Amino acid sequence: MKARKITALLLTAAMTLSLVACGGSATTETTAETTETTAETTEPAAEAATEETAEAPAEEVAPVTPSIDFEDGVFGFVGNDKSVTTAADDAVFSVEDYNGSKALKVTPQGKMPYVGIQVDALLGDNIANLKTIEMSIGIENPDGTFYASSGNIYAFVGEDAVKTNAAWSVYLETVNPKTVSYTLADGQAFVAGNYIVVSLEVDNGKTDGATQANMYIDNITFKDAAGNVLAADTSAEYVAASSGPDRSNLYAVTGAVEFADFACSGDGWAQNGFDMPQEIIDALVPGSVVEITYTSESGDMWIVMPDAAAGWMRVGVGNADGSGSDDAYRNNSKNTCQITYEQIAALCGDDVSAWGARMQCESDTAWEVQAIKVGMQAPAYGVAGGVEFANFACNGDGWAQNGFDMPQEIIDALVPGSVVEITYTSESGDMWIVMPDAAAGWMRVGVGNADGSGSADAVTDGSKCYVTYEQIAAVCGDDVSTWGARMQCESDTAWEVQAVKVGTATQFKPLKNLVEFPDFACTGGAWSQNGFAMPQEILDALVPGSVVTISYTSETGDMWVVMNEAAAGWMRVGQGNADGSGSAAAACNGSVCQVPYEMIAALCSDDVSTWGSTMQCESSGAWEVLSVAVGQSAE
Fold this sequence. Notes:
Blueprint: H1 13-22, E1 30-31, E2 33-36, H2 51-55, E3 78-80, E4 92-98, E5 101-107, E6 114-117, H3 119-123, E7 132-140, E8 149-157, E9 162-170, E10 178-183, E11 195-203, H4 204-207, E12 214-223, E13 229-230, E14 252-258, E15 264-266, E16 272-275, H5 278-283, E17 288-296, E18 302-305, E19 313-315, E20 329-330, E21 336-340, H6 341-348, E22 358-362, E23 367-378, E24 380-388, E25 394-396, E26 402-405, H7 408-413, E27 418-426, E28 432-435, E29 443-445, E30 459-460, E31 464-468, H8 469-476, E32 486-490, E33 495-508, E34 511-516, E35 522-524, E36 530-533, H9 536-541, E37 546-554, E38 560-563, E39 571-573, E40 587-588, E41 592-596, H10 597-604, E42 614-618, E43 623-633
C-alpha cells in the first residue's frame, strides 16, 4: 500500500479496557515495547474525533517507502511457523489486491495462523541494526461482516533466540487495516538466525460461528534506532524454525533436578565438570537418568566419574574409545543425550556413595555442555489418530485453573489406552489437568508432588504434557460419564496452553548405539517415495530390537518407510490405516517417526538379506526427511 495521510487516534482508558475484553495477548517470556498507530484509511474514527480535531486540517505526513510492499508479488520469505505453538495452522499465502494496493493474504485452513518472516535473511548484515518493525495488518471476513481480531508479533532475539512479543488488535471497522509495530527492548539485539512470527490468535467472528477471517499484511518497514528504513532482500527464502527441543530417542524425564551451574567445555578427550550437590546425589536412584544438553563436533557425549571407588570410569562412550562399552541414549539432533543410573552402576557399583564426589563430561572432539539434570525415566508418548479439542487456548497464574466444556468428540476419544496431549508453556515447566466437576470430587490429575499430594506425575518436557486415561481414571473412576463436563489446565506458576488433543497413546523407544544413514535427506509429494541404497553399516544395524528413527516434516504428520525391492514384494511399513490397509502404525509425532525392526520383518521376513538394497520414505502429505538412523532399543 502507498503511504497516505494517517489520522492519529487518542484512545481513552475505557477503550483500552474494551480491547482487553475483546481478547488478550499470549503470555510470553518478555513483552517488547509496542506502539500502534491508526489504519491507513481516509475515514476518521468517529469514536475518537472531537470538534477540535474535526475542524483542524489534517497534517501532511512525509511518505515513507517501506522495506517490503508486496507490489512485486514476491513472498518466499514467509512461511507457516510452529515454533510458537505446534497447534498453529498451515495457512495458505498469496499476494492479492487489498485496500488499494497489493498485500500478503493469509488464508487460515481451520486453526489460527502463525506467519513466520525470515527477518535475518531479509536484512543480512543489517540485522544487527534493526530496532523497530512496522507493518499494516488488516482483517477481512468472507461474509463481509467485520469482527474484531487480535494477535501478536513474536520476535526471537539474540544468540539464545529469546521470545518477546508485542500485541496487536483490529477492533474498529473504521481502523482496519491498522499499522502496528514491534520495538526491540534496550540491551537486546537481533542476530543471524533470528526471525519474527505474526499470529492471528483471537478471531471473534470464528468464535461467533462465522467463517474464519483472512489476515492481510502489508508495508513491512524495518528501521534502525535513528528511524532510518533498512532495505530488504525479498529474494530471501523462508526456513521453518524448530517447533521445540528434539526429544527423539530419549526417555521422558519426570521430577527432574537441575545440576546448578553445570556449564563447561573441553577439547577432544578432555574432561571437565563439577562436584555433585546433595540434591543430585539424592536424585541418582534406580530408574533415574542423567540428561545432558550439549554441543560437540562429533555429536558424541558421555560422563566420567573420576573419583569412583571402582576406579576412573568413562560411562556411555560406546565404542568411541575402543572399549565396546554401552552407549548413551542420544537424540537425532546430537545435542541431547541420556545416561541411566543402571549404566553408571554397571561400572561404579550400586552404592552411589562409592561413585565419588565429582561428575565430569567428555567427548572425542571439542565440546560444550549447557546443562545437566537428573530425573526419573518415563515413557515418551506420541498421539496417534488425535482428536483436537477445538479452540482450547487459555492461560492462568500459578495454581489458577482455566479450561472449557468437553465436546462430544473429546469425550468419545477418552478410552483406555488414550492420552491427553497438552501443548503449553509455564514458568516452572509443570502442567496438569483438573476435572472440577467429577462425581468423585474436584480432581487435580498428573500434578506429581507439586501440591504435596504425592500423586502420579504427568509426563512433561516443558512444551508438551501427557496425561493418560489411566491416570484420570485412577482418581475419577473408569466411567467417563462421571468425569464431569469440564476439563481445565493448571500449573504451579504462570502458564499458557495453546492446544489440547486426545488420541491413542503411542510410546517412543529410547535408542542407543545410533548408526546414521549418511546423507539421507530427501523430499516427496503426497504418496510419493524417495530414498537411497542402504550402506553396509545400516544393513548390519538392522537386527532384532533395532529401530529406524526418522527426523522429518510432513503436511499430515505421517511418515513411514517403503522397502521397494523386498523379495516379498513392494512393502509400505508403519503407515497404520492411512492407506486403508489397517496395518500397524509407526510411532510418529510430526517431527520424529520410529519404525521397529519387528514391524519391517512382519512384512519382509526375518532375513534382512531379502529386504532389498534400498530404503525409502513416504507420507500421505508432502514431506521432507532430514535424517535417518538405526538404533538399539532399551527394551
